[in-house]
């Protein structure tokens, strides 16, 4: 019996081995990150195709990997026969959501906790310290698979060598091949290309460390589809360029939605590349999608509510020294749809101003600000969507520091306990 991979889309695929079917990160259709990303190619895999699937694993909660609409589209009787695999998290939101949808079972796994999916088939995951990204390692009687999808760490060589010490050389290695966030303002193509090149350098390093038999570049089959982020497509890596760069170094398998690859046999990568190129050429411009508009009064109310929650749930006074040092400072924002200016601070919330657009640190729409005020993940959505202009270099990081408490609170971490966590300080406040 051979292992087979059925390609779903983007970061999603189905592994068929030893009589079981394991689906990874299924995003079937629709837009992600505040209607800012679109799939490059149409998905052939439909909700009824989940019939007979035994397991579904989500690498993390981002909607291009954990797609609530895709899960809801699966008929209820089919969901009742599927077991969900996910990392154990503090907030348990994903696990709770899947249980409410009526899946057969939801298994919340600790790092490297082995799961036997079938005789000779084992699964394990390893999550990063932020309770977000995770990778998985799958071993079958015939092959081993290491899927690191979006995992990004500071000391990448140490990280990957630690993973290698657990997994050994994988037969099939899957990794993201282009950037997935804002990389520059309109016209900053050089800045975008620099980030795109760094993703290719990451793959070079990964190949040198893991030395896999087969590389599957994936998790970047999207395009920035709105007027205010469409320019980010100018610097992104194309799968054609990635394939040409690595095809002579490693067996490079490119898979198009609906393709079935018998692992270890020749793969029609060139055919897949041609189809992706045709889909890219067919993109005529941004999608004409209208956003909701939030009034100044609505935004002020959301800001006041968030400020009250933050002060109730955290010892905010402990961060005041960072405010006095200027490390956490108000950010000047221009709302492009309201044509209004404000400053935002975690200590004082919204303060409306008469500042000119050109004097703002950043500019974006009212719906983006509303998302940040409503949801701890709202700032991540803004950054990943790429739908903003940074008028003052470093302003994005400054804004992120003002929303770090709500982000941490959303996943069950509160000050002061989180404040004194070394990993948190290094990752979110930039301390070394």
Task: Report on the architecture of this protein.
- With 432 residues, the protein is α/β, with parallel strands linked by helices.
- The protein has 2 domains: 4-281, Metallo-beta-lactamase, Chain A (4-Layer Sandwich), CATH 3.60.15.10; 296-428, Nonspecific Lipid-transfer Protein, Chain A (2-Layer Sandwich), CATH 3.30.1050.
- The chain is 31% helix and 22% strand.
- It has 14 helices and 21 strands.
- It has helices at 68-73, 76-79, 93-100, 156-167, 189-210, 239-246, 269-281, 296-313, 320-324, 366-374, 378-385, 395-402, 404-410, 422-428, and strands at residues 4-9, 12-17, 20-24, 37-39, 55-57, 83-87, 105-109, 115-118, 121-127, 134-139, 144-149, 172-176, 214-218, 222-224, 251-252, 260-262, 331-335, 340-345, 349-353, 362-364, 389-390.
- Strand 18 and strand 19 (349-353) form a beta hairpin.
- It is globular, with a radius of gyration of 22 Å.
- The protein starts with a strand and ends with a helix.
Can you count the helices? 14
In this structure, how is the largest beta sheet organized?
7 strands, mixed
Going by helix content, strand content and strand pairing, the class is alpha/beta
Overall average residue pLDDT: 94
Task: Give a topology summary.
Elements: E1 4-9, E2 12-17, E3 20-24, E4 37-39, E5 55-57, H1 68-73, H2 76-79, E6 83-87, H3 93-100, E7 105-109, E8 115-118, E9 121-127, E10 134-139, E11 144-149, H4 156-167, E12 172-176, H5 189-210, E13 214-218, E14 222-224, H6 239-246, E15 251-252, E16 260-262, H7 269-281, H8 296-313, H9 320-324, E17 331-335, E18 340-345, E19 349-353, E20 362-364, H10 366-374, H11 378-385, E21 389-390, H12 395-402, H13 404-410, H14 422-428
Parallel strand pairs: 3-5, 5-6, 6-7, 11-12, 12-13, 13-15, 17-20
Antiparallel strand pairs: 1-2, 1-16, 2-3, 4-14, 8-9, 9-10, 10-11, 17-18, 18-19, 20-21
Helix pairs in contact: 4-5, 8-10, 10-11
């Amino acid at each position: 019996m051979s292992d087979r991979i059925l390609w779903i889309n983007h970061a999603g695929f189905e592994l068929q081995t030893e009589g079981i079917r394991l689906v990874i990160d299924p995003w079937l259709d629709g837009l992600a990150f505040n209607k800012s990303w679109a799939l490059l190619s149409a998905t052939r895999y439909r909700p009824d195709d989940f019939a007979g699937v035994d397991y579904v694993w989500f690498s993390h909660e981002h909607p291009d990997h954990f797609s609530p609409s895709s899960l809801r589209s699966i008929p209820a009787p089919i969901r009742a026969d599927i077991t969900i695999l996910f990392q154990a998290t503090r907030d348990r939101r994903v696990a709770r959501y899947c249980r409410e949808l009526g899946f057969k079972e939801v298994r919340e796994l600790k790092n490297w906790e082995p799961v036997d999916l079938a005789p000779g088939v084992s699964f394990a995951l390893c999550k990063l310290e932020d309770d977000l990204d995770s990778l998985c390692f799958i071993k079958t009687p015939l092959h081993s698979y290491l899927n690191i999808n979006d995992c990004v760490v500071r000391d990448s060589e140490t990280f990957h060598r630690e993973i290698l010490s657990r997994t050994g050389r994988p037969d099939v290695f899957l990794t993201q091949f282009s950037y997935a966030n804002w990389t520059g303002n309109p016209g900053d193509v050089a800045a975008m290309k620099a980030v795109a090149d760094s993703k290719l350098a990451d793959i070079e390093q990964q190949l040198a460390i893991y030395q896999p038999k087969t590389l599957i570049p994936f998790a970047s089959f999207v395009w920035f589809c709105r007027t205010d982020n469409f320019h980010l497509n100018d610097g992104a890596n194309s799968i054609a360029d990635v394939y040409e760069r690595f095809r002579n170094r490693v067996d490079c398998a490119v898979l198009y939605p609906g393709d079935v690859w018998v692992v270890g046999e020749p793969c029609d990568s060139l055919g897949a590349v041609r189809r992706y190129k045709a889909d890219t050429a067919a993109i005529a411009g941004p999608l004409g999608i209208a956003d909701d508009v939030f009034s100044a009064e609505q935004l002020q109310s959301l800001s006041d509510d968030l400020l009250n929650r933050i002060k109730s749930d955290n010892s905010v006074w402990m961060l005041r020294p960072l405010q006095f040092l200027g490390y956490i400072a108000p950010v000047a924002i221009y709302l492009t749809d309201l044509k209004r200016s404000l400053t935002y601070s975690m200590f004082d919330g919204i303060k409306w101003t008469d500042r000119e657009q050109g004097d703002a640190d950043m500019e974006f729409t009212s719906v983006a600000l509303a998302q940040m005020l409503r949801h701890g993940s709202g700032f991540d959505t803004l950054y990943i969507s790429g739908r903003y202009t940074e008028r003052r270099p470093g302003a994005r990081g400054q804004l992120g520091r003002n929303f770090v408490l709500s982000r941490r609170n959303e996943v069950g971490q509160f000050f002061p306990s989180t404040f004194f966590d070394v990993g948190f300080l290094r990752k979110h406040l930039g301390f070394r």
